[in-house]
């Protein structure tokens, strides 16, 4: 079965308890279930991962890029967390691995601190979903599926 991956960067393991006034009280396990429902509806296997370590995320992006090139994965929904703003190595990994990616952010990063307004990931993403809370993950999953069917 073909997979769809969902990658989560640093501090997303704290979802539900970290800054609930910004990110809500939904946990990462709840997000996994939301993504599972979307992937099941599309007939895709869900590959859901989180890491606080940039190198681990790069390794996963390389792995998933190979899977995508082989037709075994449609791509990845990716919430890079704070890596959004400075992790050029992650940007280069996405580009180099030719991994289709939809970038997702729970909060509207453009309505927050100025340093959050710039993403180094966006230029290599097929699309971006911001500001819809955790529901944005479902939108991103559906968007990635549509983007890769073209």
Automatic annotation (TrEMBL):
Catalytic activity: 3-dehydroquinate = 3-dehydroshikimate + H2O
A Pfam family: DHquinase_II
Binding residues annotated for substrate, in chain numbering: 79, 85, 92, 106-107, 116
GO MF, one annotated term: 3-dehydroquinate dehydratase activity
Active site: 23 (proton acceptor), 105 (proton donor)
Subunit record text: Homododecamer.
Job description of the protein: Catalyzes a trans-dehydration via an enolate intermediate.
Protein name, UniProt field: 3-dehydroquinate dehydratase
Organism field: Nakamurella flava
Name of the coding gene: aroQ
């Amino acid at each position: 079965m073909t997979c769809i991956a969902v990658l989560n960067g640093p501090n997303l393991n704290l979802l539900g308890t970290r800054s609930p006034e910004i990110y809500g009280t939904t946990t990462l396990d709840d997000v996994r279930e939301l993504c599972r429902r979307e992937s099941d509806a599309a007939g895709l296997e869900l590959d859901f991962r989180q890491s606080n370590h940039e190198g681990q995320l790069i390794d996963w992006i390389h792995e998933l890029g190979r899977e995508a090139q082989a037709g075994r994965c449609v791509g990845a929904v990716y919430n890079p967390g704070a890596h959004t703003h400075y992790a050029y190595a992650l940007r280069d990994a996405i580009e180099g691995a030719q991994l289709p990616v939809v970038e997702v952010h729970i909060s509207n990063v453009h309505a927050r601190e100025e340093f959050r307004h710039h993403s180094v990931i966006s230029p290599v993403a097929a699309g971006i979903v911001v500001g819809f809370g955790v529901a944005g993950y479902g939108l991103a999953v559906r968007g990635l599926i549509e983007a890769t069917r073209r």
